[in-house]
Amino acid sequence: MTRGEPSAAVPAGPSVPAPSAPAQPGPFNPLLLGPGEYPFVTLDRMRRELVPAGVPVIHFGMGDPREETPEFIRAALRDAVTPVSSYPLAAGQPELRAAAARWFARRFGVALDPDRHLLPANGTKEAVFLMAMAVVGQGDEPRRTVVIPTPAYPVYEPGARYAGADVHLVPLRSEDGWRFDPDRVPDAVWARTALLWLNYPHNPTGATLKPEDYRRVLERARTHGFWVASDEAYAEVWFDAPPPSILENGLENAVALHTLSKRSAMTGYRSGFIAGDPRLIEGLRRFRPNVGVATPDFVQRAAIAAWGDDPHADRQRERYAAKRRLFLDDFARRGWAVEGSQATFYIWMKAPGGDDVAFVRRLMRVGLVATPGSFLGAAGGGFVRWALVPTVEECREALTRLDAMTGAQS
Question: What pTM value is reported for the model?
């Protein structure tokens, strides 16, 4: 038919009533519509509302180091950028797995097979979120519970819930030194558990576990048949004695997660690894191509350089130790109590007056940001987490502002 010709008659079909309103797309995952919000989004909104205009912010909220990434790591990345870019393999470069395994042997005395016991990850946040999707049973499988000590890094629980798991929270207690005690979980819960999250050195309290604590946990795991994922992101930020890894007690039923974010000031590089039980590593290796690939090859080359060098991590630890001493001395002078805080770059402080949110709001009025403990779980209420990530000079300025804040209150 050419333009202008009459069209052939089209038989009339059944009439369709016009919609009264445009149809809405959906549905959303119900978890996206709930009242919950990532705690650091809430914290940032508070900052925008309360920090006076023109006052420079010194941010002790998120654990994002402001120290420079060492130059030799940046140079390794630059040198590895090639004219042609290709998808990185999900299993990562063999050289990266080997470098990580060598570091693990130096640091913990545990021999890992780079091909069977280790899998690179895009940092550990992604690995934490996806872990439950890989191990929680579906349908009639009885093992659908994820056990999470709290207060906690705020990704363990949403990762479990998005995977459709049941969550069993275990409040950590001041009187236990913020250490997880497996005896506080009933055997009936262990019997339906798929995954237990541990995180030591602990975010947010800075507490540490001893080797015998890990042994007790693994006895339960091997008796009841669940996985233990030990998030050891802060294993290199210690002050008196290097904390152990869960894998020093054997690989069976356990994996450890490590990252370069804190050790090497590489938060933006997104490079870490999962190591442990070859059965779970093989399962994660099959799972990973469905959700992504490894970090870019040039980032992997930077990571190889970072895992291969220990002195820069020692220097990083010295910087955190200097900032930690400043704050511990200052808080002691003020009569502010500190608990935990044996490792990590966090100071876990009792909120003066007991209201952690109110205290953080006071801090924001002089341009300081810290994290209310209750933002990381109800068991953290009454405490404030200080992330010692600003520079030493900024830390000294922050303590001067605290003098102004407390002076105004007196």
Answer: 0.91
